[in-house]
Structure formats: structure tokens, C-alpha cells
Write a structure and sequence with these properties.
Elements: H1 5-10, E1 18-21, E2 25-29, E3 37-43, H2 58-74, E4 81-83, E5 99-103
Antiparallel strand pairs: 1-2, 2-3, 3-5, 4-5
The protein binds adenosine monophosphate.
The site of adenosine monophosphate has 13 residues, from loops.
Length: about 110
């Protein structure tokens, strides 16, 4: 499978503004923000879509929710949206699973 743009960012081939990273995920600022805060939580594991998640990936999916909490605390955000676009019909453009973390709608 061809490397996704997100794998290329993780490997340092393409620059990105990194907000957070650990051994399982990287969090970058979306290049075309749809809100004051628009981050992408991206697992290092290149799973194509949410439909490709297996039972062994469930701790990783849980971890993504923990990372969302960490980001909200770090950035002192009272609320946020966590969105996954799944498949072309769901509006997914990059086929490397990721969650949009959006905040700052009321400012
Ligand atoms: P999706 O439509 O859910 O696949 O979302 C893909 C997201 O990746 C879009 O919001 C894009 O703006 C964002 N994106 C694409 N290329 C980059 C990049 N090089 N750096 C940061 N965000 C990107």
C-alpha cells in the first residue's frame, strides 16, 4: 500500500505543526482549519478507515479518546467535537484513519 500523507508527515518527509505525540499517535494542526482549533489525531498504525478497525485495535481507539481529553486540558478548552469521516461516502479524503478535534465555535 502506498504511504499516506500522514505517514509521510510522521516520517518527517512533509512538514506539519505538531501539537502532541506519543508512541501510538501524532496530533497535528489541520492545514485547512474549519474552526479556531482544528487538530487531527492520527494513529501511527496506518489503518485505512474505521471499517478496518479490528478488536485488537480497540485499545488504540480508546487511547484516541484519552488524547482528546489531554488536548482539551492542555489547550484549556471547555468543549470540543471529535469526528471521524469514514469512507468516500462519509467525506473521508485521506485513507489513514484520523479523528478531527474541533473547538472554539462560540468565539
Ligand atoms: P478527511 O476528509 O476526514 O479525510 O480529512 C482529511 C483532513 O486532512 C482534511 O481536513 C485536510 O485539510 C487535512 N490535511 C490534508 N493534508 C494535510 C497536511 N499536509 N497537513 C495537515 N492537514 C492536512
Amino acid at each position: 500500500m502506498e504511504k499516506s500523507i500522514f505517514t509521510r508527515i510522521m516520517e518527517g518527509e512533509i512538514p506539519a505543526k505538531v501539537e502532541y505525540e506519543d508512541e501510538q499517535v501524532i496530533v497535528i494542526h489541520d492545514i485547512a482549519p474549519k474552526a479556531r482549533v482544528h487538530l487531527l489525531i492520527i494513529p501511527r498504525k496506518p489503518i485505512a478507515t474505521l471499517m478496518d478497525v479490528t478488536p485488537e485495535d480497540l485499545p488504540l481507539i480508546g487511547h484516541i479518546h484519552q488524547v482528546a481529553q489531554t488536548l482539551a486540558k492542555k489547550l484549556e478548552l471547555p468543549g470540543f467535537r471529535l469526528i471521524n469521516n469514514c469512507g468516500k461516502e462519509g467525506g473521508q479524503e485521506v485513507f489513514h484513519i484520523h479523528y478531527h478535534f474541533l473547538a472554539g465555535f462560540t468565539e
